[in-house]
């Protein structure tokens, strides 16, 4: 791999010191300080991550990072190198799950800004990602959480329900775990475009809710903050995507654990336990007596037998309304 730090030193024309940042699970991330007092963020992308299907191709990630910067949500891109980026250092506080539970409003605002920005260069579907991860697990004989495959009919049911009245795809981050959100004053900024792509905005919200373990009421508050209205079709849509986040990302950890063992050991993180934990949360929600209601609500109260019935209020549905 080319030496990104040497490249930055040459570009900057001055000495630069590197302080590694722990916290990310995938790449080499470091704070850089220059002799004349500037501070930057170096992101050296590990090609094994995208090769294993755990991230989008590196060139797509770089292109999307540039677009997220143009939207004013991602860090500014200061310098591009082969497989690495020099980024604006966001001088703020990286959120933890508790912070994310207390900030649904500012987080929804950051998502709206990202989603209103330039389209990303690739599309992203959480359902195709799940298929891809499962195929990888089968090909490589990786362990999936016990009972995982029994849940695939429910996944198909969720996909059909969401597809009955889809929202327009917008440029989504798709991996909004707390560590990818940085609070700078009153504003939330978003880093790490490893899984970005144009997608249903309800997945973005459901994913945030899943990663910070929102209860249903808080998930509904986030949904209202984002869409600016109280619509049971939208709250159901976000809650179903919350389940999809836990189901699919549990396999991300299973694949990471199985295919990137060496890197996983170095990260000092229990990938297997995280996979089991996410799957357990998904099972909790799938077995909840309210699950069937979510599937009905997302179709505007229509039962699966009458997919063409109009929404109860006679409106054309939320499909035609932009997400802002
Ligand atoms: N531009 C930035 N400015 C300040 N801190 C950052 C920036 N980008 C990342 N970080 C910090 O580094 C951590 C890991 O970075 P991230 O890009 O999420 O790496 P990974 O892809 O490995 O998850 C983040 O949780 C955040 O604390
Ligand atoms: Mg990250």
TrEMBL record:
Q: What is this protein called?
A: Aminoglycoside phosphotransferase domain-containing protein
| InterPro entries, A to Z | Aminoglycoside_PTrfase, Kinase-like_dom_sf
Any stretches that span the bilayer, and where are they?
Answer: none
Per the record, a Pfam family?
APH
Q: Say which domain of life the source belongs to.
A: Bacteria
Q: Which GO terms describe its biological process?
A: phosphatidylethanolamine biosynthetic process
What organism is recorded for this protein? Streptosporangium minutum
Where are the residues of the annotated region Disordered? 287-324
Which cellular components does GO assign to this protein?
cytoplasm
Q: Upper taxonomic classification of the species?
A: Bacteria, Bacillati, Actinomycetota, Actinomycetes, Streptosporangiales
Q: Which GO terms describe its molecular function?
A: ethanolamine kinase activity
